[in-house]
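Deliverable D5.2: sample structural annotation.
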Amino acid sequence: MRFFDQDGGFVKYGSIIFDLIQLNFFVLLISIFTFGLGFGAAATAMMYSIDRTIFEENGYALKNFWKSFKLNWKQASILWAGALLVILTSRLGMDIVLQIGGPMSFLTIVQTALIIETIFILIYAIPMLALVDFKLLDLIKNAFVIAHKHFLTTLICLGLTGLVIFMSVELHGVFLLFLTSGVGLVVNQLVVRKVMLNYLTEEQKRGLFPNTLYAPKSYEEL
């Protein structure tokens, strides 16, 4: 097989890059037109599409994206709105303490911890919601537990997300256009393929990953 053949690496990886750019564009488009409130649902749909299209090679990127968006937009939007509320109110409280010149108080420490824990939960809750049917409270509880149990993975995902934000703000906003879905690809590999597998039943694994876990080799062989 040659690199430029129809089944070669050029077409394969070119298709992946094109899919990621498409997903990135629609995540940003939805986020802009909803003033950021639609990011949760868009990110959830992106994670679903990445897993189905790129890893499972099942369907088309945009078709999978809109399928997940329609299915999960309500829960994802509530999750994201709640996370924004916690982060923004905590940040506001910290700014008020700094403006009045007060020392770092117990309340400031609690607010900082709330922001960090909320981000930790989002790192896991969004890909979990994309693939598994959870009630919202169960989703948050499981994401909280898993985020701390797999702390190194959590820190890696947090670092990648922070790097994209830094590059987009400090260097050029164009990085946000191309790197958001790239981070989603890595997070999917780390969170879904490495972590979530430990918490799924055999039936769930067969339903979610038929093309990668059970063909051509079984889960036990991995």
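Annotation notes: The chain has one domain: 9-213. The two ends are 26 Å apart (CA to CA).
The annotation will be released with the project's public dataset once the embargo ends.
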